[in-house]
Amino acid sequence: MIYSATFFSILMWVSLAGLVVDFAFQLWYNIVDFKNKTLW
Amino acid sequence: MLSFGSLMITFSLVLMGSITWLGYLFSKRKMQDSDSYFTAGRDISTAFMTATFIAYAVGTGLIFSPGEMAYLEGLTAMIGYGLAISLSYIVFLPVSGRIKELIPEGNTIGEYARVRYGKIMYIVVLFVSIVYMFCLLAANLIGAGIAFNYIGHVPLYIGVLVIGVPVIIYTSYGGLGAAIFTNGLQAILITPMLFITALLAFRNSGGTVAIYNGIQEHAPDFLKVFHPTGLEFALMIIIAVSAAELLNQALWQRVYSAKDIRVVKKGLVSASLMTFPMTIVAASFGLMAVAYNIELPHPSIATALMADNLLPPWASMIFMMIIVLAATSTASDALAGFSSIASLDIIKSFMPNLAPEKAVLVGRISTVVFGVGAMLVAFKAPSILFLLLTADLVAAAAVIPVVAGLFSPNISGNAAALGTILGILIGLPLFLNNQHLLSFVTAIIVSSAVIFVYAKISPARFDFNKLKEHIRAVD
Lengths: 40, 475
Prior knowledge:
heterodimer, A: mainly alpha, 1 helix, 0% strand, B: mainly alpha, Sodium/glucose cotransporter, 20 helices
């Protein structure tokens, strides 16, 4: 059984999109903590 | 006209200078007592906790090793690496809760081992932790060094020094607080930079289908789901990374530094979800090297070399800065972890009445000594993956004895020490004989069998309240 080209493409693009989501969450966590005055 | 190598050094110095300066300013403002040096004031909240878990994982161990493995073993190994990094944080979840509950004023993993198991296991755990952190630090410095060497054509030692010296400066001055604060900066910079460079690399390589076709042409076995060596590696790395993280002083230290257990758990779950795509994207450069049939001058250089081949100079420079940030983030975590162990475990064993201010001084000196030692090893540039796996094997032998002691009162110190030492003695020859998966499984089974059989025959009946009574904050 081999990985298909479609699976490979989906894995790569979903992972790339995951980086955007990662960044958004990091920003959001920082904003929330900053607003709550608990950032540091 | 400045060469690419000179520009790499210039940008790296500016970036590291800025991070060091910010780390210094932050530490100066926030360090109120000696305890802050070792546990960052015990009030870290979600944003920085998540960032520090991400930045810790995204060392050169993530930027280089997954790419190296993808280049050597293919897609299954690459996915296995992503799962390993991600799952290790999930595996650490229940352990972190138990640590926070039993040892709210803790500082190091060593002091837990000493109170829970006594002197022999204390020495064993210190040995394992120090070996692991040393390998981690050296691996990160090597990653940066070979990137400077092969991409910028700069002598390896310059890359190691450009990374090593600033990290030693800000970590020795600010301790764990400086490490976590700079991790916050590093994590938030790395994510978009990795996105931009990977997107460009995919486009310039002809897209994902072209990469797939290239792999099929040059290494069709790498696309097999059950590619034997790839599958073996995937299983091994999941065991190896999970074992290492459970025993990792850097992670234990973050649990102690968190405001509460909710913050730790949110940080771990978030980092677990976030590091998977980061690993896959970083490792995909290794697959691109396969697709392009590139011969590597060093086994760990796949990711950086492909980035340099596929990207325009400005984007290649961004990728080099990712390497600088990744290497420095994990390196500072390893240094902060070691400074606590050196000061609060090793030196305090000989000087039980060491004053808190003196403990900080010892921490600072040990950070410098440890950092210089790792730089000397990094100058020799062994394979990053080999270095990390050797450290992981030692951790695998100790992980069950150490972690089980948090949950079961019946495991004794003698059994834990015996199990760990036997696990290392039996696992290491197998590892050196290239039977990697077998070596990890054997080390874990042997150590587990010893402690559980011993607990059945002679239960220790440890009183967990002793942990709270004997383990206190530095001040």
